[in-house]
Amino acid sequence: MEWANFLRTAAVIFLLCVTCLLVKELLNFLRSHVYFQPWDIPKPKCNQILFFISTFWSLYKQRRPESPYMCLLLQGLYGVSIAERNQRIGVLTLGIKPAVFFGKAETVEVVLSSSTLIEKSTEYKFMYPWLGTGLFTSPAVKWRHRRKLLTPTFHFTILEDFIPVFQEQSSVLVSKLQDLTKEPWVDIVPLLTSCTLDIICQTAMGVSINAQKGENHEYVKAIRSHLLSDGTMIGGIFAMVIEFYLDRTVIAQLL
After folding, report:
1. What percent of the chain shows pLDDT beyond 90?
2. 8 Å CB contact between 211 and 220
3. Residue 197, Cβ neighbours under 10 Å: how many?
4. Contact 243, 231 (CB under 8 A)
5. How far is it, in rounded angstroms, from Cα 53 to Cα 34?
6. What is the pLDDT of residue 173?
7. Is the pLDDT of residue 34 over 60?
8. What is the DSSP string of 30-47?
9. Pairing mode, if any, of strands 97-102 and 89-94?
10. Mean of the pLDDT values across residues 212-240?
11. What CA–CA distance (Å, rounded) separates 81 from 104?
12. Whole-number mean pLDDT of the chain?
């Protein structure tokens, strides 16, 4: 009897701890997002949550086993861009997080040329275990300091030395696409990512990994597993599930 009471007490304590952790994560999430803050940016004249749910449900009904989910996502984004094509700037709620979109190139130019709008969004955090806080992922203060160090050493004439690499890897990509001309449809993402990976590794690091030719496929597979993992963007709660340990294995392969 005493043992049963001990187990019940332990179970209650465990559930309370889990609840506290979930509440903590929820509060951190709400503090780091701006969904409930007022916006001066134009947005679609409809309920944002209902709009997201209806769009998601429509895409879900159109899913096919032979069609990658990314195609449906791009289809949804294209539909939004068509519906809001007359807006210079707008905001759309993706789930419970707002996302700003641009409909005119002039608006994009203002944002990209800004010296203050350089803080990375939370979506970059899932790359920290793999890439750390380098130039691509670093916060604004760190990025600005490193950019000042690198800018004097870089010039576009450097890219001229890489043109033979671009041509070589592009030829491999074209030959692979030619072999797929009779297919009803082609998922071009793996082909382009392998080509890009070959170019980046050969130009920036001086290493040929031949990803397009099927070599070093473990590295390529590890990158895809990390980027498409269901838990890569969840954060603290993610560390409590078994997928965390699986992803640590993937990160070890990448490093």
Report:
1. 7
2. yes
3. 19
4. yes
5. 19
6. 93
7. no
8. HHH--TTS---S---SS-
9. antiparallel
10. 62
11. 11
12. 74
Identify the residue whose tokens are 């009904």.
Answer: 61
Residue 140: which of 112, 113, 121 has the closest Cα? 121
CA distances from 9 to 2, 6, 20, 168, 177 (A): 11, 5, 17, 66, 62
DSSP designation for 124: G
d(CA 84, CA 101): 9
Query: Is the pLDDT assigned to residue 245 strictly greater than 60?
Result: no
* Distance from C-alpha of 4 to C-alpha of 217, rounded to nearest angstrom: 52
Q: What is the DSSP letter of 94?
A: E
CB 95 within 8 A of CB 32: no
Average pLDDT, integer, range 68-92: 72
What's the one-letter identity of residue 192?
L
- CA–CA distance, 52 with 58 (Å, rounded to integer): 10
Buried b (16+ CB within 10 A) or exposed e, 118-144: eeeeeebebbebbeebeeebbeeeebe
Query: Quick check: helix, strand or coil at residue 194?
Result: helix
Here the tokens at position 86 are: 């007359």
Closest CA to 95 of 233, 247, 238, 237: 233
Contact 173, 212 (CB under 8 A): yes
Q: Report the distance separating Cα 212 and Cα 195, nearest Å.
A: 6
* The pLDDT of residue 165: 92
Helices assigned H by DSSP within the chain: 2-32, 48-61, 69-83, 105-112, 128-131, 140-150, 163-178, 188-204, 217-227, 242-254
Spatial CB neighbours of 104, under 8 Å, sequence gap ≥ 6: 88, 89
Pick from 25, 88, 99: nearest CA to 55: 99
SS (H, E, C) 226-244: HHCCCCCCCCCHHHHCHHH
Q: How far apart are CA 136 and CA 143, in angstroms?
A: 8
